Amino acid sequence: MPGAIYAEGLVKTFGDVRALDGVDIDVPEGTVLGLLGPNGAGKTTTVRVLTTLMRPDKGRAEVAGLDVLKYPNEVRRSIGLSGQFAAVDDYLTGRENLQMVGQLYQLSARDAKRRADELLERFNLAEAADRTAKTYSGGMRRRLDLAAALIISPPVMFMDEPTTGLDPMNRQALWEVIEELVASGATLLLTTQYLEEADRLADTIAVVDHGKVIARGTSDELKSQSGGDVVEVVVHDRARLAEAEEVLRRLGAGETTRVEHTRKLGVPAPGGARTLAEVIRELDALGIEMDDIGLRRPTLDDVFLSLTGHAAGADGGEDPPPGAAPDGPPDERARTRDQVRKKVSR
Ligand SMILES: Nc1ncnc2c1ncn2[C@@H]1O[C@H](COP(=O)(O)OP(=O)(O)O)[C@@H](O)[C@H]1O
Ligand SMILES: [Mg+2]
Questions:
Q1: Which ligand is closest to the CA of 18, given by its number?
Q2: Residue 51 CB: number of other CB atoms within 10 A?
Q3: CA 208 to ligand 1 center in whole angstroms
Q4: 11, 12, 17, 210: which to mutate for ligand 1, most atoms within 8 A of CB?
Q5: Lowest-pLDDT range, 40-49, 109-118, 328-337?
Q6: What is the pLDDT of residues 33-74, one digit of tens each?
Q7: Which of 112, 204, 265, 308 falls 20 to 30 Å from 219 in CA-CA distance?
Q8: What is the DSSP code string of 86-145?
Q9: CA-CA distance, 144 to 139, in Å (whole number)?
Q10: What SS3 state is found at 341?
C-alpha cells in the first residue's frame, strides 16, 4: 500500500530545464522523509506538485490516499505547508496572518481565532501578535510560517527548507518544534540543504540532484554505502610512512590513502574501534611514533560528495530574502487579505 505521501515518475520541465526527471517517493504514515539536495535540485518543484500547486508533465502522486490531480481540494484540506513560498503576508499582523489561514481552511471565525492564539503562544509570538509581519525578524517570520502550517493540525505536512537562513539558536528551536509535531504522529516531508538537519530529523533520506533521486535510505545506510569508518593516522617521522602504510593495509579493509606532505594515512575500517586499537598496538610495537590517530565516521557530507561529485549546497544560488514576493497569484492573496481585514475588524 502506498504511504501517506506517494509519487511515481514525476516529470516537470521548464523550457529546457528538466526540474523533475522521474521522481519516485514513498513516505510511510507517521514517518519523516528528508529530501536532501543542493539548490536547483528540484526539491521545491517536488513539494509544489505534491501540494497541488503545480501539475506535473508526467507521473502521478497521492497524498493522504488521495490523487493530487483528481482531488486537489481534498488534498489541500489534509495537508499543511510551510516554507519558502508559504503564507506570510507582510501587511497583516501575526494574528491576522494566522486567522486568514484558518479561514482559508474554512474554520469558523471563532475557531480560527482560538487556534491562532494557541499557536502564537506556542511559537513565542504572543507579544508580537499585533504587529505587522513586515516588522518581524527572519526567525519570527519562520515561526509564523510554521504556525500557519499547523492551523488545522494536518495529518500530512510539507516543509520546504524550514530552517534555511536561520541562526543556530532559532534552528535548534525549530527542530524541537518539528520533533514534537512528528512525535504526535504526523507524516512529514522536509526538504533541506543541510545534511545535519536531515540526519537529525529524517527517518529516511532521499538524495536529489538534477531532478532525480540518486540515493535513498536511512542516514546510517547512506553512510555505510559510502564506505563506513576510516582509521586516520598522522605519522611523526616521514621516513616511516611506508612502513606504517603497510600496517594499515594489513589491518584495514581496502585501499589506503596517503598524503605525503601532511604525513597522513587512512584506511577503511569496518571493524571500527577494534581495528583502531589493533593499528595503535602494531605501530607502537614497531616503535612508529604517531602525532595523531583516530577513527573518522563518514558524514552525510562524505556521502553527498561521493554520490554527486560536489558538496551539498555548493553550487550557489541565493534564497529569496525574507519577504520576497511569494508565488501564487498576487491579486488572489490581496483579495483574501481584504476579506480577512473586514472580518477581523467587524
Ligand atoms: N517556475 C519556474 N520557471 C522556470 N524554471 C524553474 C521554475 N521553478 C523551478 N525552475 C527550475 O527548475 C529547477 C529546480 O528548481 P527547484 O525545484 O526550485 O529546486 P530546489 O528547490 O531544489 O532548489 C531549477 O533549475 C530551477 O531554476
Ligand atoms: Mg527550493
A1: 1
A2: 24
A3: 13
A4: 17
A5: 328-337
A6: 999 988 899 999 999 999 998 999 999 999 999 999 999 999
A7: 265
A8: S---TTSBHHHHHHHHHHHTT--HHHHHHHHHHHHHHTT-TTTTTSBGGG--HHHHHHHH
A9: 9
A10: helix
